Amino acid sequence: MSKYRRDLPQLKGGIYLTDGGMETTLIFHEGADLPHFASFVLLAAPAGRRQLKDYYLRYLDIAAKAGTGFVLDTATWRTNPDWGARLGYSTEALKAANEDAVELLSGLRADFERPGAPIIISGAIGPRGDGYKAGNMNAGEAEAYHAAQIETFAGTDADMVTAFTLTSIDEAIGIARAAKQVEMPCAISFTVETDGNLVTGRTLRQAIEAVDAATGAYPHYYMINCAHPSHFDTVITGDGAWLQRIGGLRANASTMSHQQLDESETLDDGDPADLGQRYRQLTRRMPQLRVLGGCCGTDHRHVAAICAACVPTAAMGR
Q: In Å, how far are 33, 124, 189, 192, 282 from 76, measured between CA atoms?
């Protein structure tokens, strides 16, 4: 069963890398057919599983050379009832897909984990709706909706769950409560707009403080995803307690707004080196930032640049 569920290594310090924009990489760089941006469909066939494994290997190699730990997120961002129904997956098939996704990562951990560089397996949870639009569930509905996926992860080798691209405070509360019910560590990652706020207009501070207040501060840390650092740099300033709760970043390299990204027919992958330097500045200002990766449009080049900028041993080719 889980190796680190009772004692998450990334909470103790040091840099832990994670991957980039899985779906955008698979679609735009590798030509994968991912209906509704659902990468979990690749688990259904040997060729797809191989493609996913190769995707992860590029990132694990970066972490191995730098001597860092790694957070492996499952390919399950769309593996929930609403998206599953659109793809013709039954409740049982979704459960199997979540389990298969963890099994794939368990094998990678067994092959690549080394002393002093833990590999944490995280069950990835996506929003019920669109990651760029406001959700409409209350916290109770969100807890009931996401409970099945979280319970499935709790029965696997997954060490934790991470909810990505959340735009709704209520949905974040529901996910945290569902995780708490089964004693599953969790992280909450919010999507912010070009002004650094959620699409609802609520501030990141309001979101973090509201979730903490409603859940007894259950999330083990928060993250920011799917926005360029320039979009949120000015809102994560000061010394408030809420800032100390932000433990990771999965930013875009593109400076485009979400509407522009949605409407674009090409992939804007920005400047990996510039992204790495922006991460360097942020981690120096906020040393509690420990889990570093990318989001839409980023790939292993961006994570390598982040690693080179933020991990001292990386520059020595360790």
A: 15, 5, 15, 21, 29
**Is residue 198 within 8 Å of residue 225, measured between CB atoms?**
no
Class of domain 9-316: alpha beta
Each domain of the chain, given as residue ranges in start order, spans: 9-316
Residues whose CB falls within 8 Å of the CB of residue 132, separated by 6 or more in sequence, listed in order: 165, 167, 191, 199, 226, 258, 259, 262
> Considering the entire predicted model, what is its pTM?
0.95
Name the band, by pLDDT with cuts 50, 70 and 90, for residue 316.
very low
Residue scoring higher pLDDT (259 or 296): 296
**Phi and psi angles of residue 121, each rounded to the nearest 5 degrees, phi first:** -100, 125
Tokens 């979730």 sit at which residue? 211
